[in-house]
Amino acid sequence: MTKSDTDANGSPPHEKPQANGVTNDKGSKVENATELRRRAEECLTMSVGDIASLPAADVGRLLHELQIHQIELDMQNDELLNTQAELETSKEKYIDLYDFAPVGYLTLDPSGIVLAANLSVAKLLNNYRNDIISKKLSYFVHSFDQDAFLRHIRDVFSTTHKHSCEISLRTDNDMPLYVRLESVAIEDENKIRCSCRTILIDITKGKQAQDELLRLSRAVEAFPSAVYMTDINGNIDYINPKFMEITGYTREELIGSNPRILQSGETSKATYTDLWNTILSGKEWRGEVHNRKKNGDLYWARTSISGVKDTQGRISHFIAIQEDTTHEFEVAEQLNFQATHDALTGLINRREFERRVEHLLSTLQGSVNVNTDVHALCFLDLDQFKVVNDTCGHLAGDVMLSQISKVLQHQVRLCDTLARLGGDEFGVLMEHCSLEHAQRVVLSLQEAIQDYHFNWEGHIFKVGVSMGLVAITETTSDLSELMQQADAACYIAKDRGRNRIEVYHKNDEDLARRHSEMQWVERINQALVEDRFCLYAQTIMSLDGCQDEHYELLLRMIDEQGQIITPNSFLPAAERYNLMVKLDCWVIRKTFSLLSVNPIFLDRLHFLSINLSGHSLAENNVLELIVTLLNETGLAAEKICFEITETAAIVNLAGAQRFMSSLHTLGCQFALDDFGSGLSSFGYLKSLPVDYLKIDGMFVKDIVDDPIDYAMVKSINEIGQVMGKKTIAEFVESDEIRTILKKIGVNYAQGYGISKPQPFDQLLDPSG
To answer: Most CB within 10 Å of its CB: which of 73, 78, 424, 518?
Structure first.
C-alpha cells in the first residue's frame, strides 16, 4: 500500500478510527463503552510530555479512542435531549389531564386548607383557583354539613385507608352543589400524614334525581287512588297503601301474586281480552271492572293500565291506577232509578215507559216475522180514586196507589212492563202477546183490582179500573198515535160506564169521537206556528206589608176566532202528547223579550214566576235557552223565579236537581208549586235549591172551616220557615183566609181574593 492510500494516522481514508482491539472483521472483539470511556479518561489525564514520548502508533490509537468517546457522548446527549422533550410533553399532558379532569382534584392539609386544586374544582365552585387555594374547604361547605365534613377530615388523617362522604357545597351562583369526597392520606419520608389527596365528584344530578324519585315514591305512597305495578307476566311487584286499604289484602299476600285474585266473575271476558290487547300494543287501557275484596265484598274500580318501557323501548312492567267507584256507581244507579222510576210506587215512570214502547216500535220496522211480532199496550185509569183523596186526603191516596201497584205487579207476566204514567193512571206493555192473550191478562188485572179493598182509619174503599187496550203491529206508525189510541179507548171505557175494558178499533164511532177530541195537539202546534198565545199575570201579595211587585205568568191560547182559551182546555192534551216543552220555550222567550224592552216595569219588579213542566226539567235545550237569553238580554237573573210542581220535581229528581242547580248558580229563583199535594217530597226538599214553597190551594181554600186543612197549612209553613224558604199560599179567595195566613206566618198570598189574572201587556203599559 502506498502512502497516498493511508491518512496521517495510518488508517485507510474510508474507515472511521477505531480503538485498539476494535475491528470490522466478523468475530472480532468489540470493547464495551465503559472500557472505552476509561481509556479516554486516562488519555485526558496524560501530560503533553507523556503523549510526546509515546510511539506514533500509540498516539494514533489514543486519538482514535477519543474520537469514539466523543461520538458516544454526542449520542448520549441527543438521547438526553429527546428524553427531556418527552418529559416536557408528558408534563403538559399531565397538567391538562389534572386541570381538566371530569372530577375535581384537591390536596388538603390536616386542617382542611386547600394546598392545590385543579381547574375542575374552580369550575364546580364557580370561583377562581387562586381564591380557593389557601382557604379551608369548610368555607364552601353548607352549615348543616360542617360536622360531616370535619368528621371526614379526621377519619382521613387517622388512617391510610380511603374514606368517602357526601356533602353539599356553597357556590358563588347559589346553585345547589352536592358532591362526594373520596380522600386518602399522604405520608412523607418520616411516615407522617402531612396531606391528603381528595377527589371531588359532582353528584348533584344524581342527588336531584334521587330526591325526585323519593318525592315521587312518597307521592305514590300517599296517592288517594290504588296503585300497583306488575312485571311483564302480570305478577305484582309493587303496591301502595291505598291498594291494600281497598282490597283488604296485606303487602305479603299481594307481592308476587297476580291481579286475577281480585276477579269476581262479574266482569266479562271480553273486557279482559280488550285490556290485554290494548296494553300489549303499548296503549293505555281505561275501563270499569267489578272486583272482589279479600272479605268477599264486591267493588267497582275505575282502572287505567299502561306499559312502562325500558331503555330499549320494550315494555318491562305495567302500572295500574284504580279508583274505588262503588259509591259513585251506586249513586249513579240510584239517580238512574229515580230518573226512570216513579218515586211513590217504584214502577217505571211515563218517560221510561214511552222509551221502551218506542224501542219496541223501532224493532217492528222491516221485521221479517210479521205474523209473530205482535204486541199489546194497555192504559189503566182508576175509577172513583178522587173519592179517596177528597175523603181521607192525599196521603191516603198515595198509600192506596202504592198498594194497587203491588196488586198489579203480581198479575202481569214477568216479561210485561208495568208503569205509573201519572196520577192514578197506569200502563202495561205486553211484548210478544196476541190481542186475545192480552185481553186475558188485562181481565186478570181488572179482577184483582175489584177484589182489592183499601182500609184507611176505619174507612173501607173499593175502586174500579177503566182500561184501553190496543194491538201493536207492523202497521202502527209511531208512539204518539199508539198512545192516543190507548188513551182514547181508556176514556171510552169510562164514558161507557167505567170499570170495563175497551179494545181500540179504527171503525168504532165512540173512539173516533174521542180521537177527534185529541185534535188539540194539532191546534196547539198550529197556534205555536201562528203565535196565537198570550200571557196573563196574577199578583202575588206580600203579607208583611212590603210593596214589592210579584207576579205569576199564566198562559192563554187565542183561537182562530180571536177568543181566549184557558189552559184547562189545552194543557192536558199538551201534557199527554209531549207538547209542554214547546209551550214552556214559547213562554220563556216571550217573557224575556217583553222584560228587556220594559225597563221601568223591570226596575219595580221584585220577581216574576214562570211555570215549567216536568218534561222541561229533563231537556238540556230548555236550560241552554234560558242561559242564552240571560246572557243576550242582560236581565238580572234574580228577577226570574221558575215554578216547578212538586210531582214533577220528585218524579224526575235527578233532572230537577241538575236543572235547578245550574240556574240557581246564575241567580235565578225557584218555587215548588202545589206543595203538600203528594206529601212525599219532604225527604227530597233538602236536596232541591228551592226559594219558595207554594202551598197547594186545596188546603188553603177551606182553611177557615176545616181544622185539618188549617193544621196542614200551618205545618207546611213551619217546615218551610225552618228550612229557610218563604211560603206562598194559593187559592186565597177571601180576606178572612188572608188574615189567617198572615197570622200563621205565611209570607205571600195569591188568588182571586187578592187579584184576578190580567193581560200581562196591561201591567207593562198601564196607560195602554
So the answer is: 424
Contact 573, 518 (CB under 8 A): yes
The three-state secondary structure class of 110 is coil
Total Cβ atoms within 10 A of residue 1: 7
Quick check: helix, strand or coil at residue 485? Answer: helix
Query: What pTM was computed for the model?
Result: 0.41
Query: Which residues touch 478 (CB under 8 Å, ≥6 apart)?
Result: 361
State the residue for C-alpha cell 468517546. Answer: 69
* Contacts with 200 (C-beta within 8 Å, 6 or more apart), sequence order: 103, 104, 105, 106, 120, 121, 124, 179, 180, 181
- Could you tell me where the DSSP H helices lie in 106-250? 119-125, 129-132, 146-157, 204-221, 241-247
| Angle formed by the axes of helices 479-495 and 509-517, nearest 10° | 120
685-735, pLDDT tens digit by residue?
Answer: 777 889 999 998 888 999 999 999 999 999 989 988 988 899 999 999 999
Distances (CA, A) of 86 to 80, 93, 99, 761: 10, 10, 20, 113
Helix H or strand E encompassing 759: strand 758-759
Round the CA-based radius of gyration of the chain to a whole number and report it: 53
The CA distance from 195 to 163, in Å, is 14
Which H helix or E strand runs over 642? strand 640-645
* SS3 at position 167: strand
Cell of 195: 396531606
What is the DSSP code (8-state) at residue 367? Answer: -
The grid coordinates of residue 44 equal 485526558
Name the residue with cell 177557615.
Answer: 704
DSSP one-letter code for 296: S
Closest by Cα among 253, 226, 229, 259 to 242? 226
CA distance 412 to 410: 6
First to last CA, the chain: 163
Residue 423: phi and psi, rounded to 5, are 55, -125
Provide the residue type at 367 as one letter. S
**Cell numbers linked to 714:** 200551618
**β-pairing verdict for 726-729 and 692-695:** parallel
Helix (H, G, I), strand (E, B) or coil at 304: strand
Strands (E), 242-314: 285-292, 298-309
**Which residues contact residue 423 at a Cβ distance below 8 angstroms, ignoring those fewer than 6 apart?**
none
Going across the sheet that includes 226-231, the strands are 236-239, 226-231, 315-324, 298-309, 285-292
Q: Can you list the positions of beta strands (E) in 298-413? A: 298-309, 315-324, 375-383
Angle between helix 520-529 and helix 567-576 axes, rounded to 10 deg: 100
pLDDT tens digit string along 401-444? 999 999 999 999 889 999 999 889 999 999 999 999 999 999 99
Per residue, the 3-state secondary structure of 605-619, as one string, reads EEEEEEEECHHHHCC
Beta strands per DSSP E along 56-192: 104-108, 114-117, 163-169, 177-187
Q: Phi and psi of 36, rounded to 5°?
A: -60, -40
400 HSE (CA, 13 A, CB side): 31
Q: Nearest CA to 690 among 715, 668, 718, 717?
A: 668
Task: Give the integer Cα–Cα distance in Å for 741 and 194.
Answer: 105
